[in-house]
């Protein structure tokens, strides 16, 4: 009997689908076609012998087996990429960008395209995960730079541009004024978890946590299915199947940080900072040293 194997490239596609919210954005982040990413998912399902994702309208949702394999895939990719960077860095100029997954969907397409233009002689790799994980990867020298997000109560919230917004399913009637508000939130640690609770404090509404999720794609799928409202970063177009929650409390401002170390190439640091400032404005971007910026 031939042993089952999970190739690294399909595993990377699986992780990208979870982190970016779908096949289209995953293909963009990996610089592949949508057809290639879909083929990777089917290959993993053949090897696993079970469905890993299911179609939910226009979206993909992970099955329990898919969620389990996703956890293994992320661990494998971290180890694989660390080994590649360790033994390949002397022959190739590889720059890796760790990006907080809760905001990656709104900044990643522009960041990818601009870095290819600004740094054409370098290979740029992206790793999407939680704030605390990409910061730890930066500390461990597993990524060259980190783009993290934080709630910034000292800044005035914006009605447009990069902002936090409470989203609700487009196909489900929102709760009335006297009804309890179900919430979908990230499991801890997450920079948006406590602000989600704080937003409803003092509003007169009762609320409860109805669903907890580990990644943004699963959270958006849960909201579409009716699991409750979720506080998420948005930029221009809202995710398919979602709309602003009527009567939701005002959300705090969101700010991104470009976090670097003394090992970060200055060309990469400057390119990431310039791209984000052009995209969301100088007041929404911080440039911080990893040595002096406390771990979120």
Characterize the structure shown.
The protein folds into three domains: 8-87, Arc Repressor Mutant, subunit A; 95-154 and 255-292, Periplasmic binding protein-like II (D-Maltodextrin-Binding Protein, domain 2, 3-Layer(aba) Sandwich); 162-252, D-Maltodextrin-Binding Protein, domain 2 (3-Layer(aba) Sandwich), CATH 3.40.190.10. The protein has helices at residues 8-20, 23-30, 34-48, 64-88, 101-118, 131-139, 193-200, 216-224, 266-280; strands at residues 53-56, 59-62, 94-100, 123-129, 145-151, 163-169, 181-186, 207-213, 230-234, 242-244, 254-260, 285-289. With 296 residues, it is of the alpha/beta class. The mean pLDDT is 87. One of its GO terms (molecular function) is DNA-binding transcription factor activity. This is Putative LysR family transcriptional regulator. Belongs to the LysR transcriptional regulatory family.
Put simply, the count of helices is 9
CATH class of the largest domain: Alpha Beta
Oligomer: single chain
CATH architecture title of the largest domain: 3-Layer(aba) Sandwich
Structural class: alpha/beta
Shape: globular
User: What is the number of strand segments?
Assistant: 12
H/E order of the elements? HHHEEHEHEHEEEHEHEEEHE
Please state the CA-atom Rg, rounded to the nearest Å: 19 Å
- What is the assigned CATH homologous superfamily of the largest domain? Periplasmic binding protein-like II
How far do the termini sit from each other? 48 Å
Question: What count of domains describes the coordinates?
Answer: 3
Family: Belongs to the LysR transcriptional regulatory family.
Keywords: DNA-binding, Transcription, Transcription regulation
Protein name: Putative LysR family transcriptional regulator
GO molecular function: DNA binding; DNA-binding transcription factor activity
């Amino acid at each position: 009997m031939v042993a089952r194997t999970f190739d690294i490239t399909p595993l990377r596609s699986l992780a990208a689908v979870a982190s970016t919210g779908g096949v289209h954005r995953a293909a963009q982040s990996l610089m592949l076609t949508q057809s290639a990413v879909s083929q990777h998912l089917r290959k993993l399902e053949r090897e696993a012998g079970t469905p890993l994702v299911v179609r939910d309208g226009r979206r993909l949702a992970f099955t329990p087996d898919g969620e389990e394999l996703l956890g293994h895939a992320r661990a494998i990719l971290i180890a694989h990429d660390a080994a590649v960077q360790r033994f390949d860095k002397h022959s190739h100029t590889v720059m890796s960008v760790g990006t907080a997954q809760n905001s990656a969907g709104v900044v990643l397409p522009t960041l990818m395209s601009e870095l290819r233009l600004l740094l054409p002689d370098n290979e740029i790799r992206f790793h999407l995960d939680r704030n605390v994980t990409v910061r730890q990867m930066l500390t461990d020298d597993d990524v060259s730079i980190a783009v993290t997000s934080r709630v910034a109560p000292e800044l005035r919230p914006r009605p447009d541009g990069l902002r936090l917004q409470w989203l609700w399913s487009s196909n489900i009637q929102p709760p009335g004024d006297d009804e309890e508000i179900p919430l979908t939130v990230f499991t801890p640690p997450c920079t948006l978890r406590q602000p989600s609770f704080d937003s409803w404090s003092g509003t007169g509404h009762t609320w409860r946590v109805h669903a907890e999720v580990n990644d943004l794609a699963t959270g958006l799928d849960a909201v579409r299915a009716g699991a409750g409202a979720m506080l998420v970063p948005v930029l221009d177009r809202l995710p398919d199947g979602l709309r602003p929650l009527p009567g939701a409390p005002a959300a705090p401002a969101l700010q991104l940080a470009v976090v670097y170390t003394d090992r970060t190439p200055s060309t990469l640091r400057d390119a990431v900072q310039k791209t984000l400032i052009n995209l969301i404005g100088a007041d929404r971007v911080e440039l911080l040293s990893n040595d002096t910026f406390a771990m979120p």
